Amino acid sequence: MREGLIALLPRLRRLARALAWQVADADDLVQVVLERALARAEQWRPDAALDKWVFAIARNAWRDELRARNRSQNLFAPEEDGDTVADVAAAPPAQRLELAMALAALPPDHREVVALVLVEGTSYSEAAELLEVPVGTVTSRLARARATLQAHLGTEA
Q1: 52 with 129: CB under 8 angstroms?
Q2: CATH of residue 2
Q3: Where does residue 78 fall: left (phi above 0), alpha (psi -120 to 50 degrees), or beta otherwise?
Q4: DSSP state of 151
């Protein structure tokens, strides 16, 4: 299991950054997830996919953190942290900041679907399983999230 967790670290970090949008929060989330996974290793079934189990822990840990902080929905990336949103070579800083603000404006359930499907590349059915919702809900949330992002970013549908 430890080797599997090590192999999952890059994907887990991407998911954490997509959920948290602040580097420090994302790093803390990865640490919490790894601690919980190791502490509850006996709960993982070897016949189950380790990534799904770990991503479920990550999602639940982030939700726990948000509840503990009693944060509002639009809290994620302050403007000054916009440069950590995307790959430095991928877009100019102003564009990265605009994307970060658009993503931060999404409701948490939409942001989760975007993180899993668009950032992490999971299938709709895998995302539905991780989020414990029907595939249609994933499709609907993703469609609404895309529409919101397009409207915020001023791009055509």
Answers
A1: yes
A2: 1.10.1740
A3: beta
A4: H
